[in-house]
Specification:
- The protein is built from eight helices and 16 strands.
- The two termini are 49 Å apart.
- Strands 2-1-5-3-4 form a five-stranded mixed sheet, covered by helices on one side. A three-stranded antiparallel sheet has the order 10-11-12.
- The relative contact order is 0.08.
- 24% of the residues lie in helices and 18% in strands.
- By secondary structure, the chain is α+β, with helices and mostly antiparallel strands.
- Among the domains are: 73 residues, Ubiquitin-like (UB roll), CATH 3.10.20.740; 40 residues, no CATH class.
Length: 352
């Protein structure tokens, strides 16, 4: 179908939304509550656009395109509405950006800068309630003073991870995000995966590691999570040559998600003082392990395997693959056991 966006004639797919159609054409429409395929409730109203022939502004995230639509994404009326939305959000928002873990990486901050909203004209009623921070969880923290109730965390937890550990609650006239990071977090359904924190557009839900860095101090390196053979893609966050965090990337098997092991247990060993960084061979005289080259270590291992096979036969040997290994590596191990050891004693610890 044919529609018009900002004077451009565009071919739009039937059933698509204004937002997705605009993004496909490289036209940016700001959003805060929207997550593609996860959350399109249109609660933040930052994505409103103007339709020809309509007196009301409509949310682009959940309004379907229709034949002949005429859309303006950055008219004076639209820009004024977005500034008012940001103004109202700031009225309920704790505004000390310097102390916030998401400073420089906050979507609310980004759009306030883009639309020139530096302060708010209003005084929000929520600020008088003094909601308590939930910070007892070992990996995650929730600060209600920085929350904009976009519900991205709620929908991520329920629709994507399937846990439903985060809910939307009420306290008097206010809606609140019921994040399970208080003293009773062990009794909740939370798996500590941190996908809610990655979905949060502000500094309300954060991974505690973020306290050690800011967005402008780090670089991201794409890699594959080492914990199992699923192959989840993630970005290692590097500060001054040291890994300080891990963030889910949009890979074919995980689409931006990580489990608790991938996010909070996949890289600390890299700089651990207990990490074995090179081959060690025990000195029979002293009983101490001594550093060796890879050639020495592999030659010794191969000779010992050969001795055992020649003396006791191949059935005296076995090969067990680690569940962290890729399927290709596991296949090569069993192939070596069957053809070189001439043994069928091979198995895999297929538990993460």
């Amino acid at each position: 179908m044919q529609i018009t966006i900002n004077g451009r004639n565009i071919e739009a797919a039937e059933g698509s939304t204004i937002l997705l159609t605009a993004r496909r054409e490289g036209i940016e429409i700001p959003t805060l509550c929207y997550l593609e395929g996860v959350n399109d409730i249109g609660s933040c109203r930052l994505c409103v656009v103007e339709l020809g022939g309509s007196q009301e502004l409509v949310p682009a995230c959940n309004t379907r395109v229709k034949e002949g639509m005429v859309i303006l994404t950055h008219s004076e009326r639209v820009i004024a509405a977005r500034r008012m939305v940001l103004n109202l959000l700031l009225s309920e928002h704790y505004g000390d950006c310097f102390s916030c873990e998401k400073n420089g990486d906050c979507e609310l901050q980004k759009y306030c800068i883009e639309y020139g909203v530096e302060t708010t004209e209003f005084t929000g009623a929520r600020k008088e309630k003094n909601f308590k921070k939930r910070d007892a969880h070992p990996f995650l923290s929730y600060d209600p003073d920085r929350c904009i109730e976009c519900q991205r965390c709620v929908k991520t937890c329920s629709h994507v991870t399937g846990r439903k550990a985060i809910g939307l609650g009420k306290t008097g006239m206010f809606s609140i995000i019921d994040a399970p990071f208080g003293e009773d977090w062990k009794e909740t359904l939370c798996e500590s995966c941190g996908n809610c924190a990655q979905a949060c557009p502000t500094g309300a839900l954060t991974v505690k590691r973020r306290k050690t860095y800011r967005a402008w101090e780090v670089q991201k390196v794409r890699t594959t999570c080492p914990h199992c053979a699923t192959g989840c893609q993630m970005d290692l966050v590097v500060k001054n040559g040291k890994i300080v965090d891990a963030v889910g990337a949009d890979g074919p098997s995980n689409h931006g998600l990580l489990c608790v092991k991938g996010r909070s247990g996949s890289f600390d060993f890299v700089d651990s003082p207990e990490r074995i960084r090179y081959p060690l061979i025990k000195n029979r005289t002293t009983g101490e392990f001594e550093r060796a080259s890879w050639e020495e270590a592999l030659s010794l291992t191969a000779s010992k395997f050969t001795e055992i096979k020649n003396q006791y036969g191949g059935e005296a040997l076995a090969g067990f693959a680690c569940s962290r290994s890729a399927n290709e590596d596991i296949y090569m191990l069993q192939k070596m056991v069957r053809t070189v050891f001439q043994s069928n004693n091979t198995d895999n610890c297929a538990r993460v």
